[in-house]
Design goal:
Elements (H helix, E strand, L loop, with lengths): L1 H12 L18 H36 L4 H34 L8
Helix pairs in contact: 2-3
Length: about 110
């Protein structure tokens, strides 16, 4: 089961690896605004990854429900997979607020996120 999960995750990530070539070269952070900007970039990538992961979890849960054939254990597994998808969405939404929280704590106005 673990090998299949690793294979599924790597096959989902593999098409996006060429996009890393478009990433900007790392710059030195010299101000607090630069830190917030760096956090914003990281959060945006994490948000995208978590939303894609949530969609995959919903599709896997749907497949599990369809193939459960009334087996309570399989239905329970599918329900847990849906819960994982919901948690991924909640974490993604919370992650979008991190730059705003950091900016408000240090009185830095940043609207780039």
């Amino acid at each position: 089961m673990l090998k299949r999960t690793k294979l599924a995750i790597s096959s989902l990530i593999a098409p996006f690896l060429p996009l890393s070539a478009f990433a900007q070269a790392p710059t030195t952070v010299t101000s607090l605004t630069g830190v917030v900007s760096l956090v914003c970039v990281i959060v945006n990538w994490m948000f995208t990854f978590l939303i894609v992961l949530a969609i995959v979890f919903v599709l896997v849960a749907a497949f599990k429900y369809l193939t459960a054939a009334g087996d309570p254990e399989k239905v329970k597994s599918a329900s847990h997979t849906l819960i994982y998808a919901a948690v991924a969405v909640v974490i993604a939404i919370l992650a979008k607020g991190v730059p705003l929280i950091i900016g408000s704590l240090f009185n830095v106005t940043f609207t780039g996120c």
